[in-house]
Amino acid sequence: MSLRYSKLGPGEGPNYDWENDHTFVKVSGQDTNGAYTLMEDNLKASFALGLHRHDSHAETFYFLEGEVDFYVDGDCHRCGPGTTMHVPPGVPHACRVAGAAPARMLMIFQPSGFDGFLSEMATMTEADFGDETKMATLNARYDIIPMGPIPPHPDDQN
């Protein structure tokens, strides 16, 4: 008899160890029939993600450790442990690790799909990442609309 539930411990689940973060898929879109994906993201001190939006899915972030500067809809927030940030579809957002120290957060993508994006990226070569057409196609398939670099932080000095 197969289980009607799933359980993953620390460090378990499909994972993607990139240069700037190490992400674990804890509940996949396959597990939820596409309703949502739950991921644990271990952000390395160098993590930064440029301004973008998603037109058909929402993201919710729950910060566990460290601090992250989160830009959402023109506002900047420093998010630390216990903070929740919910970003509905269509709202521009970006983030970076604050204070050059690692951070960790849970992410919910609703509906699911981002786990498929990471899975496809894991099969790509450096040449693929440099191919603007290929990246634009991948981003479009997963509802990722790049909008530019991370906005300046109020604490940044020129």
Automatic annotation (TrEMBL):
Recorded GO terms, molecular function? Answer: quercetin 2,3-dioxygenase activity
**Record keywords:** Dioxygenase, Oxidoreductase
Q: SUPFAM superfamilies annotated for this entry?
A: RmlC-like cupins
Specify whether Oxidoreductase is a keyword of the entry. Answer: yes
Question: InterPro entries this protein is in?
Answer: Cupin_2, QDO-like, RmlC-like_jellyroll, RmlC_Cupin_sf
Q: Which domain of life is it from?
A: Bacteria
Query: One Pfam match, by short name?
Result: Cupin_2
Q: Which residues form a coiled coil?
A: none
EC number(s) from the headed UniProt entry: 1.13.11.24
Q: What is this protein called?
A: Quercetin 2,3-dioxygenase
Its source organism is Ruegeria meonggei
Q: Which gene encodes it?
A: qdoI
